[in-house]
Amino acid sequence: MTKIEVQVNKVWEDNSNANTKRPTSIKYVLSGNGQTQEQVVTGNTTSNEDWSYKFTNLAKYNAQGNEISYTVSEKEVSTDDLKFYTNEITGDYKTGINIKNKFTVPDNKVEVTITKTWVDNSNANGKETNKHQICIIRKQPNTRTSCNRKCCNRCRLELYIYKSSKNTIAKEM
User: Fold this and answer.
1) How many other C-beta atoms lie within 10 A of the C-beta of residue 30?
2) Quick count: other Cβ atoms within 10 Å of Cβ 6?
């Protein structure tokens, strides 16, 4: 029985993982002749080293004598491993499969509902107003935040979005 190999080459376009979003491992899925074979590969998180893989000892022909056409896809090992990457797969099983992952910031949006509740003894001091401005500031690590609008400091909010949770927490300043 004739055997072949399928080479998978990986390239990351993410400026050596400058945004620290590259996963430590990915999964290659080889498909052919109605069957799949998966292989988890762990590579260097700041270079393209150790991300390639070679599927070996693969049948070249099926039971009817027809040449088997193999394809390779890529999957996440853990949920959202490739959230910040788009991939492009080129080549073929005979000459080698090339997978390029390019860093791309997803277009996710958050929706914020704000409810202002007065806790002032039913406006005992006559200070309530129906004019309010609220600034929503995106909090980024190691940066100072500022608001370009004139905001009432007691009504300004900061939003914290945590990677480990889908919840957004608003904190009154």
Assistant:
1) 20
2) 23
